[in-house]
Amino acid sequence: MKIKVDLDACLQHGQCVIAAPEIFSFDDDGNLQWKAAPDEALRDDAEAAADACPEQAIIVE
Ligand code: SF4
Asked: What Gene3D superfamilies does this protein map onto (predicted)?
């Protein structure tokens, strides 16, 4: 599984961090970080984060 985030669209709401904290987080500077190739076991979380993103900035492949 691969996850991409369109950072031009991302407004740093953090909904993805709430939905999938094992994949998404904010660093100390408030920038979004994520696992680009997380384990397949996290697919449900990844898709929940993509659904929760108000900007539809998360692409799960
Ligand atoms: S929910 Fe979407 S817009 Fe908000 S921080 Fe996550 S990727 Fe960015």
From this structure: 3.30.70.20
Which residues lie with the beta carbon below 6 Å from any ligand 1 atom?
Answer: 5, 10-16, 32, 53, 55, 57-58
Domain with residues 3-60, CATH architecture: 2-Layer Sandwich (3.30)
Q: What is the secondary structure of 1-61 as a DSSP string?
A: --EEE-TTT-----HHHHH-TTTEEE-TTS-EEE-SS--GGGHHHHHHHHHH-TT--EEE-
